[in-house]
Design a protein that fits this description.
This protein has about 350 residues and is α/β, with parallel strands linked by helices. It folds into 2 domains: about 220 residues, Spore Coat Polysaccharide Biosynthesis Protein SpsA, Chain A, CATH 3.90.550.10; about 110 residues, no CATH class. The chain contains 12 helices and 14 strands. The strands form 3 sheets. Strands 1, 2, 3, 4, 5, 6, 11, 12 and 13 form a 9-stranded mixed beta sheet that branches. A 3-stranded mixed beta sheet has the order 8-7-14, with no helix packed on it. It has a two-stranded antiparallel sheet with strand order 9-10. Strand 2, helix 2 and strand 3 form a beta-alpha-beta unit. Helix 7 packs antiparallel against helix 8 and helix 8 packs antiparallel against helix 9. The longest helix has 22 residues. The radius of gyration is 19 Å and the shape is globular.
Length: about 350
C-alpha cells in the first residue's frame, strides 16, 4: 500500500488516553501517514506525541471546533485518496487498514466503510458507537447490529457478513476524500454526535454506498471524552437527531416525523425525570428549544439538498425500536430484523 491513505485522529486534551491507545495505531499502521488534528488542547498531549512519535504529523487548530468542525478544518490540510478517521480511544489490530482499503478499491461505488467495533473493556461484546454497522428505524432512531439502545450483544459471529448499512461509525470511519468533500463534510452545526449519520445519509442520497467490513476488528473504549449518560451527550444526541431529520427527510415525511419525534422525545424526557439521570429531562428540553431556535438555519440547508432527499433505503428498519425494545421486549438486532 502506498501513502494514499491518511489516518487522522482528532485530539482534545487526550494526555490521559493517548499513551494507552496511540502505540497500537503506530505499530499497526506502517504504510499510511498518521496525523493528529488538535482541537486547541491545553494539556500536555501534544508533548507526549512529539516526544514518543516524532513521525506523526500534527495539525494545530486555533480553538476547539468539536468533532465535526475539527475534522473539517484539519482534513483540508491532508492530501490523500482515503481518510481513516479514528477516535483517540481506539485500539487497532494488525492489518486493520489493508483489507478495507482493498475492498473499497474493488468497489468504487462505496464511499465509506467501518470495521467491526468491539468494546475495549469487554472485548467479547460489541461497542455502543457503531458495533457491526449502523441502521435507522422508522422514526429516525439509530441502532446497530449488536447494539439496540443501551443493550450490547456478545459477538458470536452473528454479524460477520460484509454488507451495506445506513451509517458507519465515526469512531473508525474509512471514507474517500473526494466523496467526503463532495458531500460537504461534517455539518459543523452538530458540533459533536450523530454528524457521521448525517454525513452517511447525504452520501447515500448522492447514490453512494456505506458498508461494514467486520473481517477487521478494532476495540473502542467509548465515552473517552463524554460518558454515555453525560448530560451534555444527552443534549447533543437529542438535538442533533432532530437536525438530521429536518435536513434529510423527503417531502411528505418531515413534518409527520418531527411531530412524532417530539412526542417520543417527551416520553424519553419523562423517563429521565422518573428513573434518572434527572438532568436528562432538562437536556432534552434544552435540545428541543435550541432545535426550534435554529429551525430556519436547517430549513435553509434542507432547501439546498431537498431534491436528493430520500428515506426509502433497505437499511431503514420499518419498525419502531422503542416499541420493539420496551413493549415487545426484543433487545437484540437479530430479534428485531429477521
Amino acid at each position: 500500500m502506498n501513502k494514499k491513505v491518511a489516518v487522522a485522529l482528532l485530539n482534545w486534551n487526550g494526555e490521559r488516553i493517548l499513551p494507552e491507545f496511540l502505540p497500537s495505531v503506530v505499530e499497526n499502521t506502517p504504510d499510511a501517514d498518521i496525523y493528529i488534528i488538535d482541537n486547541a488542547s491545553d494539556d500536555k498531549s501534544l508533548d507526549y506525541v512529539k516526544k514518543n512519535f516524532p513521525d506523526i504529523k500534527i495539525i494545530r487548530l486555533d480553538k476547539n471546533y468539536g468533532f465535526a468542525g475539527g475534522y473539517n478544518q484539519g482534513l483540508k490540510d491532508i492530501q490523500a485518496e482515503y481518510y481513516v478517521l479514528l477516535n483517540t480511544d481506539v485500539k487497532v489490530t494488525p492489518g486493520w487498514i489493508n483489507g478495507i482499503i482493498s475492498f473499497m478499491e474493488q468497489h468504487p461505488e462505496i464511499a465509506a466503510v467501518q470495521p467491526k467495533i468491539m468494546s475495549y473493556r469487554e472485548p467479547n461484546k460489541f461497542e455502543y458507537a457503531g458495533a457491526a454497522g449502523g441502521f435507522i428505524d422508522k422514526w429516525g432512531y439509530p441502532l446497530a447490529r449488536g447494539r439496540v439502545l443501551n443493550v450490547l450483544e456478545e459477538d458470536k459471529g452473528q454479524y460477520d457478513d460484509i454488507r451495506p448499512v445506513f451509517w458507519a461509525s465515526g469512531a473508525a470511519l474509512f471514507v474517500r476524500s473526494r466523496d467526503f468533500f463532495e458531500a460537504g463534510g461534517f455539518d459543523e452545526d452538530f458540533f459533536a454526535h450523530m454528524e457521521e449519520i448525517d454525513l452517511c445519509w447525504r452520501l447515500k442520497n448522492m447514490g453512494k454506498e456505506i458498508y461494514v467490513y467486520p473481517i477487521v476488528k478494532v476495540f473502542h473504549l467509548g465515552g473517552g471524552t463524554l460518558a454515555y449518560n453525560n448530560p451534555r451527550k444527552i443534549y447533543f444526541n437529542f438535538r442533533n437527531s432532530l437536525y438530521m431529520l429536518i435536513k434529510n427527510l423527503p417531502a411528505g415525511k418531515a413534518f409527520t416525523m418531527i411531530v412524532w419525534r417530539m412526542v417520543l422525545d417527551g416520553i424519553a424526557a419523562l423517563n429521565f425525570l422518573i428513573n434518572g439521570p434527572r438532568q436528562g429531562f432538562i437536556e432534552v428540553l434544552r435540545a428541543h428549544i435550541h432545535f426550534h431556535k435554529n429551525l430556519k438555519t436547517f430549513l435553509a440547508k434542507r432547501r439546498i439538498q431537498k431534491k436528493n432527499n430520500k428515506f426509502d433505503y433497505p437499511e431503514v428498519i420499518r419498525k419502531s425500536i422503542i416499541w420493539q425494545f420496551y413493549i415487545r421486549r426484543k433487545r437484540f438486532f437479530s430479534e428485531i430484523v429477521k
